[in-house]
Specification:
Blueprint lengths: L1 H14 L13 E12 L12 E12 L6 E15 L2 E3 L5 E3 L5 E18 L9 E20 L4 E5 L5 E11 L2 E8 L19 E11 L1
Antiparallel strand pairs: 1-2, 1-11, 2-3, 3-6, 4-5, 6-7, 7-8, 7-9, 9-10, 10-11
Length: 216
């Protein structure tokens, strides 16, 4: 994880030499997002519990495509940390069982995320309070994924067989500091092959709903 953080801050350290003056300004931005991950297509009886959460930190390069420079393409790189509490527990042999609500069972994952956005805003070179609508795709490259279980008398950790790379649709809408962010998955979370018994697990997806903050 330290290597990924070093890579991220190394890239942003020289990328922040953006032009904000005159007619050549860009909305290059560091962003931070907090949110709630949502299980989609989970098998019957599988549910989330406790307070799941997700956090992202990254940098987006803004590339205007019109003369007013308020329409642009954005390409970025960031890191994403997810904690999802659920009653679906994986065992070491990848069989599953449903645990009771008093058992802490969480899926933790670290990912590189690569947002690609079509960006509209009503900004000007001197106006930093503006409306924005950014829509596009975000790719997630898995760095690690584990399940941690704590029932009080028993603790365990199991690697999760998540997909190495996933795509999702993403929409960010807001004004100035406060912006809503929502991503809807294209690809499923897990990759258990094509066996019939694992078919429903392969259909599980995770969406995300939260707030995103842009730091100039």
């Amino acid at each position: 994880m330290q290597k990924q953080l070093f890579l991220f801050f190394f890239m942003t350290s020289f990328s922040l030499a953006q032009s904000q003056a005159g007619s050549a300004y860009r909305e290059d931005q560091i962003y931070a997002a907090i949110g709630y991950p949502l299980l989609i297509n989970a098998p019957e009886g599988i549910a989330q519990n406790k307070l799941s959460h997700t956090f992202s930190l990254g940098y987006i390069r803004d590339m205007p495509i019109n003369n007013n420079r308020n329409i642009a393409i954005g390409l970025g790189l960031g890191i994403n940390y997810n904690v999802l509490f659920t009653n679906l527990q994986f065992n070491n042999d990848m069989t599953t069982n449903v645990v009771s609500s008093d058992v802490i069972n969480q899926w933790n994952s670290n990912e590189l995320e690569i947002p690609l956005e079509f960006r509209w805003r009503n900004s000007t070179p001197t106006n930093y309070r503006f409306w924005r609508v950014y829509a596009g795709l975000v790719g997630h490259y898995s760095l690690s994924a584990k399940q941690y279980t704590n029932s009080g008398s028993f603790k365990s950790s199991v690697p999760l067989k998540t997909r190495n790379f996933r795509l999702a649709f993403k929409l960010n809408v807001g004004n100035n500091t406060w912006n809503l962010t929502y991503s809807y998955p294209i690809d499923s979370l897990f990759d258990f092959g094509k066996s019939a018994e694992d078919k429903t697990l392969n259909e599980i997806k995770t969406a995300k709903l939260g707030l995103i903050f842009y730091i100039f």
